[in-house]
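Hi support team,

I'm filing this because I wasn't sure whether my run with magnesium ion finished correctly. The job status page said complete, but I'd like someone to confirm that the output block is well-formed before I use it downstream. Pasting the exact inputs I used:
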Amino acid sequence: MKIVVLTGGLSTERDVSLKTGEMVAGALRDNGHQALLLDAYLGYGVPGESLEEIFERAATEEAGVSEITEEAPDIAAVRAKRADYPDGFFGPNVMELCQMADLVFIALHGENGEDGRIQAAFDLFGVRYTGSGYKGSALAMDKGIAKQLFLSGNIPTPHGMLLKKKERPKLSELTINFPCIIKPCCGGSSIGISIAADSEELKQAVDAAFLLEDCILLEDYIQGREFSVSIIDGKALPVIEIAPVKGFYDYRNKYTKGGAVETCPADLLPEIANRMQEYAKRASEVLGLATYSRTDFLLNDKNEIFCLEVNTLPGMTPTSLLPQEANAVGIDFHELCELLIKVSLKKYEEA
Ligand SMILES: Nc1ncnc2c1ncn2[C@@H]1O[C@H](COP(=O)(O)OP(=O)(O)O)[C@@H](O)[C@H]1O
Ligand SMILES: [Mg+2]
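And here is everything the job wrote out:
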């Protein structure tokens, strides 16, 4: 197949996406596809450039993507690279190339990729893509809305409240259980997330989160173990445990080798593991997701499970969780990429 692997973009998870894209494009080429690695924001060439035989050339082109840095990327510097074409999100020739392809493998994470807007644009332009559709992606991306849907589906989630910047909430008037977690509603990769032990720390954390987004979530801090469960085509993969070596599962621990110890299948009572898998399936259902997703959980020492969020485009980097879960049931990375294509194409058969 002619496949565009869409990567990069402008979200704070840009670097993670570049790594996912590089890995996926490499595997798809090995599998015999003509895979073109394309940065959604930087695009290819200049508008009007001849795109003839680009997929044939893509089969042999090397992808020049660097390691994920320990800090989130400098988005202003990325924008500056496209100073000649500042308008719109899609870079030169991106939509043209996506329309020429048989399928777009969406290797984006965060804003613009995971939030449903690209999926909506693709639906209107008649482009086929991997992963869930626009509506479920948008619902899952907003942790405030997703929390409401979890509750409606009897999926336990930490008690939380939403704060809106324009309402300028008086923190002293709120009833808050310390320690608490502060997170931007639509962020990812733990960027902008902090733990506050008292009202002074809370004020700082809220100010910092409001710099990133106008809507933030304040949650009870759940002390315990951390897990994730991926769903492919309605079926749960084995639970994976993530144990950060130091602190919580922040950006550094997520993307630095050795930042966290990951165990799959997780060492859990079968009854707890089954319940987590069941909640992951249910979470994907209440959000209306298709194809694949990965749900994050916490477990406290009373064996109470809390659902944190659903990732609609989980990472596919060398240290990512979904590939590890697939591996535990004998699906290697190359097979996983094929499987994700297969289940993604189903949504067009059923339409
Ligand atoms: N309520 C909570 N209690 C304890 N830790 C939390 C809580 N919410 C988030 N965390 C920590 O922050 C990490 C990121 O939170 P999450 O909600 O999964 O957002 P994202 O992964 O999109 O940044 C989690 O993996 C966990 O380590
Ligand atoms: Mg998470």
